[in-house]
Amino acid sequence: MYHNFSELLDGIKKNAVKKVIAVSAAHDREVLESSAAARREGIADFILIGQERKISEILSALGEDAGVWHIINEPDDAKAAELAVSLASAGKADALMKGLLHTSVFLRSLFHKEHGLIPPDALVSQITVSEFPGEERLILLSDCAINVTPTYKDKVQIVKNAVSLAHRLGIVCPNVACLAPVEVINEKMPETIDAAMLSKANERGQITGCHIDGPLALDNAVSTAAAAGKGIESPVAGKADILLMPNLCTGNALDKALRYFAGLHTGSAVIGAGVPIVMTSRSDSAQNKLHAIGLSVL
Q: Each residue of 33-90: pLDDT tens digit?
């Protein structure tokens, strides 16, 4: 089991076959800094699509020889995203990465039916992976970037996507906490009803490979002392590996709080498409973008 991102990146360097990642709108210093680090470490190779002159200038400033990089000049963001997705669809790229462009533009190309990257009945969801220094382990949050107000059916697939990544991180049977403001079912809070349904579905074997409990407030999900203080007895309470967000607003706020308030190292993955996707915030640091690249290769 990986306990932090350093272990994760070391493990990938030792065991992974180098993958090719197509980057749309690659003319961004943090994107190229993380790509250069991944390339130097032998984690991945890249196809850089965007403003060629600016890409070359940034690479040179980073001490890289732009001449040895695969660069495709496409200054239009939408066309750059389309080209990256078409390369993945044709099997010429193993993963996609969003550069300096709006998420909506990137996703519009990804979901274009002619590329066939979204399998029938699949649901694409985002997962933030964060270091949890106090317990020397990684914790997953989903969904923080794509699904705005997921239905119960959506949450089932979001859980399954997160569990699949948790398994790859070495968490054999992850504990999934369905977050809500309270620990009891309240008909005025739909997230508490969804949480109860997910817990029962897991209990009856409809969702496997994990333990699910909820509704649980955040403190009771990650702190055994908080759970004990409220008299909550559960194999998940205080020991959550995956935090299921009730909606995107909650997930996005918590995702950013981890970095800007707590200063934690994070990375993100987008799962459910035909290829892994690196879709970080434009404000993310190069280090966190490198973590996301590592997760996509994993």
A: 999 999 998 999 999 999 999 999 999 999 999 999 999 999 999 999 999 999 999 9
Q: Average pLDDT for residues 126-141, to the nearest whole number?
A: 95
- Indicate if 125-260 has the same CATH topology as 5-118: yes
Q: Which CATH architecture has domain 5-118?
A: 3-Layer(aba) Sandwich (3.40)
User: DSSP of 280-292, one letter per residue?
Assistant: --TT--HHHHHHH
Q: Which helix (H) or strand (E) holds 153?
A: helix 152-168
Q: Judge whether 194 and 202 are in contact, CB under 8 Å.
A: no
Domain limits, the chain: 5-118, 125-260
Per-residue model confidence as pLDDT tens digits over 227-262:
999 999 999 999 999 999 999 999 999 999 999 999
For residues 184 and 155, give the distance between their C-alpha atoms in angstroms, rounded to a whole number.
Answer: 19
Maximum pairwise Cα distance, the chain: 63
What does pLDDT average to over the chain? 94
| CB-based burial, 112-134: b 16+ in 10 Å, e otherwise | beebebbeeeebbbbbbbbbbee
Query: 125-260: which CATH topology?
Result: Isopropylmalate Dehydrogenase (3.40.718)
DSSP 36-54: HHHHHTTSEEEEEEE-HHH
Phi and psi at residue 214, to the nearest 5°: 165, 165
Model's pTM, two decimal places? 0.93
HSE of 216, CA atoms in CB hemisphere, 13 A: 33
What is the C-alpha to C-alpha distance for residues 77 and 35, in angstroms, rounded to an integer?
19
Do 123 and 154 contact (CB within 8 A), yes or no? yes
